[in-house]
Specification:
Blueprint lengths: L1 H42 L3 E11 L2 E11 L5 E8 L2 E10 L4 E7 L10 E8 L4 E7 L1
Antiparallel strand pairs: 1-2, 2-5, 3-4, 3-6, 6-7
Length: 136
């Protein structure tokens, strides 16, 4: 009788473990599927900073104008721009395939000097970045 009781306990616990594992793996694969599909789109994003202009307002050298071109297969949204490692959140602007978007930034807490090297990083919502170096 004890053997039969142990057999029933082992079978019922095994079936509970099986049901739990199937439901858990299903939840994980759903999240992973979304992650891989969004990375697939990010892999099709290609952006190019065509030009950068450094101008002044009054006596302060604090305006940076970038022209970003979409050379990829999908449209993207510009989420942020980093200038010399300083984050500038901008109003999200959508750039269609083969289109150019003007991005104008007013620097805060820093200015540019003539002849200085400026590092510019443009980031999209999907996480694609491009790093360029310009001389102001």
């Amino acid at each position: 009788m004890a053997n039969l009781t142990m057999l029933v306990i082992v079978v019922s616990l095994s079936s509970l473990l099986f049901v739990w594992s199937i439901s858990s793996f299903g939840a994980y694969t759903g999240g992973a599927g979304y992650w891989f599909s969004s990375r697939s789109l990010a892999n099709q994003e290609r952006l190019s900073v065509e030009s950068a202009f450094f101008t002044a307002t009054g006596s302060a050298n604090n305006i940076v104008t970038l022209y970003v071109r979409n050379v990829g297969a999908v449209q993207f949204n510009i989420a942020s721009v980093y200038i010399n490692s300083t984050l500038y959140n901008i109003a999200q602007s959508q750039v269609g395939v083969s289109q150019v978007q003007k991005v104008q930034i007013t620097l805060s807490g820093q200015t540019w000097g003539s002849g200085n090297v400026q590092t510019v990083i443009v980031a999209t919502l999907r996480g694609t970045t491009i790093r360029t170096v310009w001389t102001s």
